[in-house]
Design brief:
Number of helices: 13
Mean pLDDT: 87
Number of domains: 1
Radius of gyration: 20 Å
Helix content: over 70%
Order of helices and strands: HHEEHHHHHHHHHHH
Shape: globular
Distance between the termini: 37 Å
Strand order of the largest sheet: 1-2
């Protein structure tokens, strides 16, 4: 517990420093928020376009799919707030040799590499996504159920952990590639898949995509399972699978990150 409290205090200090730095460039801060608002507007326009043509997307009705989009936006905002900028700049640390300074500090390297900065301009995304989810629940007539809410929060944490694990795997590969532009193009592919319900992938070509990215590389579970849990479309086997997959992906990503650091050659070597 003492170690956990120590890391929490350090993270809070880093978060305060990031906020101070962000507010030094207020115009850039406001522009980034405007861009994120525009992105949400595009998602909602996409949603309206779909439901102008149909009443359901597979077994997702209008309000359920709105909740799904809100969840996707909120989770994406949280990932960008906490991890994206850090992981994206890891290749620069390797190429410049600045990673040496992180390895010399008496702290866990993974924590310093992936959690050192907080992108406060993406925080509104979390609240906007939560607002869309709340609106969808009200429109659908959802009745409060503490058990369902707690299970949703647990699977939400699993979704965040899964996404972080895959992001860490791609980040670690920068040790060998030195640039991570192509690697993070793969991440944007993952986020595109996360945007859609798994059930729409049908047919001889699409079905294997849905299967692979649900069970082999379970990135689609990040959004699909928590959204279903909250809307009471619970699939017990998928809930158990997302818990198991999260543990496995976090374990493998941690081991791979440590392995990658062992292959790192510092600027002085």
């Amino acid at each position: 517990m003492a170690t956990l409290a120590r890391y929490l205090r350090l993270w809070l200090s880093l978060a305060r420093f990031s906020l101070t730095r962000e507010l030094s460039f207020r115009s850039n801060f406001l522009v980034k928020i405007f861009v994120e608002l525009l992105w949400l507007a595009i998602l909602l326009a996409f949603y309206e376009t779909i439901f102008a043509q149909t009443d359901k997307v597979e077994d997702w009705d209008r309000h359920q799919y709105l909740f799904f989009l809100g969840y996707y936006f909120a989770l994406g905002g949280l990932l960008e707030t906490l991890f994206m900028d850090n992981c994206n700049s890891f290749a620069d640390l390797v190429r410049s040799g600045d990673l040496d300074f992180y390895l010399l500090k008496p702290m866990d390297e993974q924590f310093l590499v992936t959690c050192r900065n907080v992108d406060w301009s993406c925080v509104p995304n979390v609240f906007l996504g939560a607002g869309v989810m709340l609106t969808a629940l009200i429109l659908s007539g959802w009745t409060f159920d503490l058990g369902v809410l707690l299970l949703f929060l647990a699977t939400f944490a699993c979704g965040l952990g899964l996404a972080y694990g895959f992001m860490l795997l791609l980040t670690s590969a920068s040790i060998w590639f030195m640039r991570n532009q192509s690697l993070f193009e793969m991440w944007w592919l993952f986020t595109t898949l996360m945007r859609y319900p798994r059930e729409i992938f049908k047919g001889p070509w699409a079905a294997p995509v849905g299967f692979v990215f649900s069970f082999v590389v379970p990135i689609m579970l990040v959004t699909n399972v928590p959204a279903r849990v909250m809307l009471k479309m619970i699939q017990p086997d998928m809930v158990l699978y997302i818990f198991a997959a999260t543990i496995a992906v976090l374990f493998v990503s941690r081991r791979f990150f440590r392995y990658a650091l062992q292959r790192y050659r510092s600027a002085s070597s």
